[in-house]
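HUMAN: Would you supply a protein with fold tokens?

ASSISTANT:
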Amino acid sequence: MLLKKNIPFGYVFGKIKYEILMVAVYSMLVNILYYQYGYKNISIPIAVPMVLGTVLSLLLAFRSNQGYDRWWEARTIWGAIVNDSRSLSRQILTLTASDYPSEELESFRERFIKRQAAWCYSLGQSLRKTDPLKGLERLLSRRELNYVMKYDNVPAALLLLHGRDIKLALENGWINNYQQVSLDQTLSKLCDSMGKCERIKNTIFPATYSLYTHFTLLFFIVLLPFALIDSLGFMEIPLVVAISASFLLIERMGISLQDPFENKPTDTPVTTIARTIERDLRQMLHEQHDPQQEEVLDHPKYYVL
């Protein structure tokens, strides 16, 4: 997600404010013990945390790369959903073209294309574990809503309705067998994209790796004040806080990126993408698009390109 505006400073450090406060208090206690009470033997060689910091940097880099790969894969999948949604709508409008268009055919096209826009919203909302039917009453008929309510996987139910409508179009002579196959292939691509998103959502990052990395980070922070106390004096406190904040922020960044469907400012902007798809599909139907709807983004504080 590309941001036009900078992320607020308070949002970034708000994620680690309690950890930073604890580190500051801990560093201050070490400083007091060393200078006020004369515990000079608590200092350790700086090489000890340096070696541990090097190992920790490699672990955090690996985690961040893996988290970004998951985030980028999710964004790539939703890019494919945009393309396939446009392709499916184009096929419906062009392959069902007739010299004598009927009211039934026009109703079929409108129902099908609006249902595709509803599918995009429903998929994004189901991935975020929110109500997959929220806001779909303006795109689906009451009959369609009652039908998909019976299913646990609402996006899959909407694709099933797509498939039934394609069969109906074949029976009515609006498309031929070859066109049916082409439409069904596009539906299969959408189904594949849905499955890939569900795989990312349901495949958690190994808990043991996260736990071991976090323990290593805590051990590094615990040792850091003892390595700097002998040479920096009181300045050891802000330096330890700054170094600890850097490592903690990198860890949190990896955690945020590894879950691209958690409805956070750092996740894949599925609602915004679905809004773009709806705009394009409505314009294919020659419907007037309400520009105010484009202001409804995933996170109002952040503006995406």
